Amino acid sequence: MNRGFFIPQKHLLYMGAFQVEFKANKEADKDSGWYFLNHQWKSRADRVYYNYKGLKEEMDAAEDKRKAFSDYVDRFYEKNNTTVEECAEKFQKAWDAVNDPIFEALQEVMEIRTKPFTAKCYMHTHGSSSPRYLDTRRMLTYYNQPVENVMSVVTHELIHFIYFEKWKEIFPEHERITYDSPYLQWCLSEVLVFSIERDERISKIVPTKDTGYGEWQRIIRFENGLQKNIFHHYFSLYEKNLAEKTSFADFLKFCWQDVQQFKDELKAK
Question: Whole-prediction pTM value?
């Protein structure tokens, strides 16, 4: 199938603009921080404790650990709220310069025209992972990092938002719950984002800083005498797909079959 960018008739009616809005949001920061303190990967909690000095000792001594965490974040914002807001403003200015071309490139690469939306990017101060929420088009990113890192994180999450719109077209029978951890559909999306964000049409606008989950980099296959982790396994397939000008839909169908071999190693449902 030719890889030409086909726009279904129903999508031609979509009007409006895609946007990303950067904001400080203490409650969203708290919710994500608490989630990572209780994450299955201990490294996520370790990052929170590293960035929130003294938090672990306070929580160890507290009977109500959720309240102790909330009180700690409140005190952090009392001292640093202005800085967090200034970071959001700085990131907004940088993002606005690439907003239109990156949204156009993402849709071109994934061969879909989606209804325009406004994504909210909230600052988090705990320094652990940057989560995304598909249904509300929300994401979080660490406030104290270089602008180019934030641009990469936001692009990564936007890929997820648009990717799953494409996925719904191809696999309408897959339930919404499978788009999130720990389901195999979610695992595959995280692996494929590594490849998609390296597509030249995207990377020439926003270069990626993503290296993939460290926990999954140990998943190895030997191909043609070469050792490849799971991310580079799919990057090779992605490059082959581009060279052969296969449709993005057909690529996803192939990957869904291929990823079954990794299900146990990914600890997926």
Answer: 0.91
